[in-house]
């Protein structure tokens, strides 16, 4: 089984030839994680759109070859440059928290491997994603194109400043921990939009925050869960 997975994943196949290894155990673990969430998070179960996306996006192809045998496990994995691909249960929850409707414009800060961007694209978002490490941005671009996610817009740079030319966004997802909610990102959120962002110290206690801007432009922030993310870097 393991050998089969490794062989199937040894190159980047065309979209129709993707390995169809069903990550059912992973899906079960994601469902179990939602069952542990406090009621105020607002989800008792993952949405069907997110489950479908988790099944469809081939996570083994987003990690280095040395990590592929672990890629259907519910854990973060190293992707080089001291960075990680996030844990699937957190990818699922952050995606659900954005309440994406097909065609919504979503900004991601921290492209990393491109996995979260592919999940967002699968649930119907028009994705804009920014990565600060040039080499990660280059390989994510290539990977997303080869896997059929060529419509994801990618940019190299400091995502703290957002993507003003593409704003406003229906949703913003930040996949590295910031010391505070970046004001430029709040400005680039549409009225009615939502942002999910881990906020806290470098490798110390961080909380996943939900930032909502109502139709009148009033911003409210809720602390949802303790999390651990790599830090948001850059000279902002
Ligand atoms: N979403 C990614 C994925 O699906 O693989 C995982 C993201 S990883 C946990 C965090 C990423 O944020 C890293 O790739 C890191 O280089 C990037 N990053 C850190 N600070 C950043 C910044 N200021 N602007 C853009 N990207 C940043």
From the structure above, extract its key features.
7-stranded mixed beta sheet, two-stranded antiparallel sheet, 7 helices, alpha/beta, 236 residues, disordered N terminus, binds S-adenosylmethionine, Rossmann fold
What does this structure look like?
- The protein has one domain: Vaccinia Virus protein VP39 (Rossmann fold, 3-Layer(aba) Sandwich), CATH 3.40.50.
- The N and C termini lie far apart (47 Å).
- The protein is of the alpha/beta class and 236 residues long.
- The protein has a 7-stranded mixed β-sheet.
- The radius of gyration is 17 Å and the shape is globular.
- β4 (126-131), α6 (134-146) and β5 (153-156) form a beta-alpha-beta unit.
- It contains 7 helices and 9 strands.
Summarize the model shown.
This protein has 236 residues and is of the alpha/beta class.
CATH architecture: 3-Layer(aba) Sandwich
State the domain count. Answer: 1
User: Which fold name is given in CATH as the topology?
Assistant: Rossmann fold
As a whole number of angstroms, the C-alpha radius of gyration is: 17 Å
The neighbouring-strand order within the major sheet is 5-4-3-6-7-8-9
Q: How many E strands?
A: 9
| Average predicted confidence as pLDDT | 91
Quote the beta fraction.
15-25%
